[in-house]
Request: fold
Amino acid sequence: MSLKSNDLRVGNYVKGIGHKISWLVDGIESEYIYSSKSWRLINCFEGIPINKEWLLKFGIQYSEFEDLFQIGGYDIDAKDGLYCHFYFNEYGDWYKEIKYVHQLQNLYFALTGEELTIIC
Reply:
């Protein structure tokens, strides 16, 4: 995924293209991201594919009974490498497909005003 500055917020996690290491965004300025005490071009980064490991890192609880992840009244159905759906109501009438960690962070913040940060 090609990132743009308006896709990100301070506190989002991204990764360097071709790398496995995640970076915490500390600042954003047009074509640059500030992370780990240096500025780098935004086109050197890409989104981190969302998976169950990231959901658990954020402290999102898995319910075996429901076979869903749950946080703050929201359900997340994730199958690694296939899909991640964020449900807005208990009937599953409306959902948002999430592909990347920063998208989940931004959506959760927009809905709750709270940040998703790594807990474990």
